[in-house]
């Protein structure tokens, strides 16, 4: 075989294998089945930050992530004021998210209750 024939045969085999891999893989879809059970108004309580890498959500339905993590609002041990609770079910697991407002900061958000500890 000449060099050109070998090159063409190698390219055809590579394209066939790559095409087979691409067509046989199935796409993975990630979605969370989230359902709000109820909201609860609370008297303002002070909590402290336990986990700085907790995700912040912009709504109580827990479907819009904020650009920031909880560490953007303070360090571990810094106080936050909690005003409201959202009881949700995510993929069959019951969770509680708190609406918070940081001291000396205007923005509010929703954070998982496990990232905070009551003072």
What is the percent of helical residues? 10-25%
Which residue ranges are poorly predicted, with pLDDT under 50 across at least 5 consecutive positions? none
| CATH first level | Mainly Beta
Structural class: alpha+beta
- Residue-averaged pLDDT, rounded? 82
Determine the strand fraction and express it as a percent band.
Answer: over 45%
CATH topology: SH3 type barrels
This entry's quaternary arrangement is single chain
Shape field: elongated
Q: Determine the N-to-C terminus distance.
A: 80 Å
Number of helices: 1
CA radius of gyration: 25 Å
Q: Can you count the beta strands?
A: 7
Number of domains: 1
Q: Can you give keywords for this protein?
A:
119 residues, alpha+beta, SH3 type barrels, seven-stranded antiparallel beta sheet
Short description:
This protein has 119 residues and is α+β, with helices and mostly antiparallel strands. It has one helix at 3-24; strands at 34-49, 55-57, 65-69, 79-90, 93-102, 108-112, 116-118.
Topology:
Blueprint: H1 3-24, E1 34-49, E2 55-57, E3 65-69, E4 79-90, E5 93-102, E6 108-112, E7 116-118
Antiparallel strand pairs: 1-4, 1-7, 2-3, 2-6, 4-5, 5-6
Explained architecture:
- The protein has one helix spanning 3-24; strands at 34-49, 55-57, 65-69, 79-90, 93-102, 108-112, 116-118.
- By secondary structure, the protein is α+β, with helices and mostly antiparallel strands.
- The protein has one domain: SH3 type barrels (Roll).
- The protein has a seven-stranded antiparallel beta sheet with strand order 3-2-6-5-4-1-7, with no helix packed on it.
- It is elongated and about 85 Å long.
- The model has no long low-confidence stretch (mean pLDDT 82).
